[in-house]
Write a structure and sequence with these properties.
single chain, three-stranded antiparallel sheet, about 55% helix, about 10% strand
Length: about 650
C-alpha cells in the first residue's frame, strides 16, 4: 500500500511508519492505511488533523505503542463522527484485523472519561495514551517475572498510586506525565535492582503533589519504598537549599554530604540518575533556554556526584546525552557513521568473538575438579561505543573534525569494546594469572589467524586492556576485568554489595564466628551458621543456586555448620543459557528455613518462594510484618523435619 502523496514528505508520519515496521511490516501497512483514511476524511491543513498526526508521533517517540494504538489515535474520531462501516475500513486496513480495530476504536470513544476543561477529542486521546501506559506496565511486570525479581505486588501498588497522582497531567512533549516514571522504572529494571527501588522510581514525582506525602506511600507500598522516595526527596531538597549564588564546589559538597549521611541514598542516586537520563532523552522538545539550563545543571552538580559514587553506566550515558544536546546534528551523523562502520565489519567481530570463546574454553577455562587448580569462569560481552565515546577516540587521535563519514574510520575508532569478565575459581587463580594465560594463549593460538596485540595497558577503571588489530585494520579493545569489579564498573556501587547486618538480636549478645571466602575476604556470621548462610551473604543469586561447598579443602553439604576460622568455597548450579553466557539455576527450598541462622537468608528464601507458591503476601516490609511471615514459615516447618 502506498502512502497518500500529501503525507509522504511528513517526517513525523515517516517516523511512525518506520517505528512500527521494525516490529511488523503487515502492521506498518495497516498504519499506512489509517493515515490514508485520515487524509481522505478531512483536510490535512486543519488544526485537528495536525494535532492527531503529532499525537501518533508522540506515542511512537516517547511511548511503546503497537499498531492498534496508533490506528486508534488516528481514526477513533472518524468512528465517533462519521462511523464508517467495516466495508469502508476494509478499503484501508487488512481484513484480518479490520473488525478488531473497529471494535477497539468504538470502545475508546465510548469509555473515555470526561474532564471539565478538556474537549471530547482531548479526553479520548488521553484515554488511548493511558491505555498504552498500562501496556508498558504489563511489559515491565513480565520482564520482572522472567528475571525472577521478587515482590512484584509492590510494583502494582506503586503504579496505581502514580496513575492516580498523575491523572490528567501531561508533559511538554504531549504524552501523559505517567510515561516518564514508567521509563525511569523500566531503565532501572534492566539493571537488575530490587522491586522496592523500581516502585520508588514509579513514585519519584508524586511527592510534588501534596496529597501524596511519604507517609501515605508507606501505608500503600511499604516502608522500604517510602524510604527510597524520601531519600530522593532529600537529595533534591539539598540541591534546592543551595543558593544559586554559592560557589559550585560548595553546592556539590552539600550534595555529597547528604548522600553519605544515609545508607539508602545510593539507590536514591540510581533513581535520580535514571530520571536525568530520561529528561535528557526528551530534551529536543524543550525551549533552547530550558535545554541550556538542564545541561548546565547536569554538568555542574549531578555528573560529579554520580562520578564520585562510580555510577559509571549512568555517567557514560549522561555524558553522551549532554554532548548530543549541544550539537544534535553532529552527534546524529557521527552515530550513523559509526553504526555503518560496525555493520560493514560485523562479520569480523563475530569471527573474533568465536575465536575468543573457543580458545579461552580450551586453553584457559579448564573447570578442574580440585580446588588447588587455577580455574576461571569467563563470560564475554561486546559493547558498542556511544557517539560521545567515538568523539573522544577521534579527539585523542588528533583527528580534525569534519564530515563524520570521512573522520570515523576503523583505523582510529575501535569496532567495539569486548569485556572478558573473569571469576577466578582455584586457590592460585587471580586476574593477573588469567592475563598471563590469555597473553600466552593469544600468541600461540590466535596470532596465527592474522590478529596481533597492538597495545596493552591498564585503564582508569583498573581493567587490563589488550588492543587487538586484524589484517583488515579492524581494532577491538579486549578489557579483562574481575566479575565483582565489572559489576561496579558497569553500573556503580549497588546497595546489595554493601554487607547487611547479620545481627540476629538487637542487644548484640549473639556469639559470632568469622569465615574466610575464596578471595580472602572475611565475613562475620552468628554461631550456628551453615553454608547456605555464607552463600546468601555473598549474593542472593549465589544463595538461591548454592549446591555444595569446599570447607577447609574438603567437600561439604550446604547444611554443614561452620566453625570460627573455616575457609569456605561456595559451589553453585549454573548453566549456559545461550552456549556462551553462564547463569545461575535457582533451587531454594522451603526446608532451608529450618536450617539457616541469619535473618538475611530467611528473608531472601521467603521472597524467592513467595513468587512460586501461594501463601503470605510479601508486600509489607516493616519489621513487624517480616516477623509475622517468619513465624508462619516456622509454624509450617514445625511439623516437617527434613532428613
Amino acid at each position: 500500500m502506498v502512502l497518500n502523496r500529501t503525507l509522504a514528505d511528513n517526517p513525523q508520519v515517516v517516523y511512525v511508519i518506520d517505528r512500527i515496521k521494525k516490529h511488523s511490516r503487515t502492521a506498518a501497512l495497516d498504519v499506512v492505511g489509517a493515515y490514508n483514511l485520515l487524509c481522505d476524511g478531512m483536510t490535512l491543513q486543519t488544526e485537528e488533523a495536525t494535532r492527531r498526526i503529532r499525537r501518533a508521533y508522540i506515542m511512537c517517540k516517547y511511548m511503546d505503542p503497537d499498531a492498534e494504538d496508533v490506528i486508534s489515535m488516528l481514526l477513533l474520531h472518524e468512528i465517533a463522527l462519521r462511523r464508517p462501516s467495516l466495508r469502508v475500513l476494509l478499503q484501508y486496513v487488512s481484513e484480518k484485523r479490520a473488525e478488531q480495530y473497529h471494535k477497539q476504536m468504538s470502545e475508546a470513544c465510548k469509555n473515555a472519561p470526561e474532564h471539565p476543561n478538556w474537549s471530547a477529542e482531548e479526553c479520548i486521546s488521553y484515554y488511548v495514551m493511558m491505555r498504552v501506559c498500562d501496556k508498558m506496565l504489563n511489559r515491565l511486570m513480565r520482564t520482572m517475572n522472567r528475571n525472577r525479581l521478587s515482590n512484584t505486588f509492590v510494583i502494582s501498588d506503586a503504579y496505581g498510586m502514580a496513575k492516580e497522582a498523575h491523572m490528567w497531567r501531561t508533559r511538554e512533549t504531549g504524552e501523559p506525565s505517567l510515561v516518564h516514571p514508567l521509563r525511569v522504572a523500566e531503565f532501572l529494571m534492566q539493571l537488575g535492582v530490587e522491586s522496592s527501588v523500581i516502585a520508588a522510581a514509579l513514585l519519584h514525582d508524586t511527592t510534588e503533589n501534596k496529597d501524596y506525602p511519604v507517609d501515605r506511600i508507606s501505608k500503600v507500598c511499604g516502608a522500604k519504598v517510602a524510604q527510597y522516595v524520601g531519600a530522593l526527596a532529600s537529595v533534591q531538597d539539598a540541591y534546592i537549599r543551595c543558593s544559586v549564588d554559592e560557589k559550585v564546589g560548595k553546592r556539590f559538597e552539600k550534595l555529597l554530604h547528604t548522600v553519605i549521611a544515609r545508607r539508602d541514598m545510593i539507590f536514591a542516586l540510581y533513581i535520580k540518575a535514571a530520571d536525568r537520563i530520561q529528561e535528557l532523552r526528551a530534551i529536543e522538545s524543550s525551549e533552547e533556554a530550558e535545554i541550556r539550563g538542564l545541561v548546565e545543571e547536569t554538568r555542574r552538580d549531578y555528573l560529579p556526584l554520580f562520578q564520585v559514587f562510580k555510577l559509571n553506566y549512568f555517567v557514560r550515558e549522561i555524558e553522551n546525552l549532554v554532548w548530543r544536546a549541544a550539537d544534535v546534528d553532529r552527534c546524529t551523523k557521527m552515530e550513523a557513521a559509526y553504526e555503518d562502520m560496525v555493520s560493514r565489519n560485523s562479520a569480523f567481530l563475530e569471527e573474533f568473538k568465536a575465536l575468543l570463546h573457543d580458545y579461552i574454553d580450551l586453553d584457559v577455562n579448564h573447570y578442574a575438579l580440585t580446588p588447588e587448580a587455577m580455574d576461571y569462569d569467563v563470560d564475554i560481552h561486546d559493547r558498542r561505543l556511544l557517539p560521545y565515546e567515538v568523539y573522544e577516540c577521534l579527539k585523542r587521535a588528533g583527528v580534525e573534525f569534519g564530515d563524520p563519514t570521512k573522520t570515523v574510520r576503523k583505523s582510529v575508532v575501535p569496532i567495539c569494546d569486548i569485556d572478558i569478565v573473569v571469576d577466578p575459581l582455584g586457590e592460585g587463580a587471580t586476574v593477573d594469572t588469567f592475563v598471563s594465560e590469555f597473553a600466552r594463549m593469544f600468541n600461540t593460538r590466535i596470532s596465527v589467524t592474522g590478529r596481533t596485540i597492538m597495545d596493552f595497558y591498564v585503564d582508569a577503571a583498573g581493567a587490563f586492556v589488550f588492543e587487538v588489530g586484524d589484517r583488515y585494520r579492524n581494532v577491538f579493545r579486549c578489557r579483562i576485568v574481575k566479575r565483582s569489579d565489572y559489576d561496579v564498573q558497569k553500573t556503580g556501587i549497588f546497595l546489595k554489595s554493601i554487607p547487611e547486618e547479620m545481627e540476629e538480636d538487637s542487644n548484640g549478645k549473639t556469639e559470632k564466628i568469622n569465615v574466610q571466602l575464596r578471595n580472602g575476604k572475611v565475613i562475620t556470621l552468628p554461631k550456628g551458621a551453615i553454608v547456605i548462610d555464607v552463600a546468601f551473604a555473598i549474593h542472593e543469586e549465589v544463595g538461591y543456586a548454592v549446591s555444595s561447598a569446599i570447607v577447609n579443602g574438603h567437600k561439604a553439604s550446604i547444611y554443614k555448620t561452620l566453625s570460627d576460622g573455616d575457609r569456605v568455597i561456595i559451589e553453585t548450579d549454573t548453566r549456559r543459557a545461550d552456549g556462551v553466557t553462564r547463569e545461575f539455576v535457582p533451587h531454594a527450598r522451603i526446608s532451608w528455613l529450618n536450617w539457616v541462622a541469619t535473618k538475611r537468608a530467611k528473608k531472601m528464601i521467603i521472597n524467592f518462594l513467595s513468587d512460586r507458591y501461594e501463601g503470605d503476601d510479601p508486600r509489607y516490609e516493616n519489621e513487624a510484618d517480616t516477623a509475622m511471615v517468619l513465624s508462619s514459615a516456622d509454624k509450617i516447618l514445625s511439623e516437617w523435619h527434613p532428613t
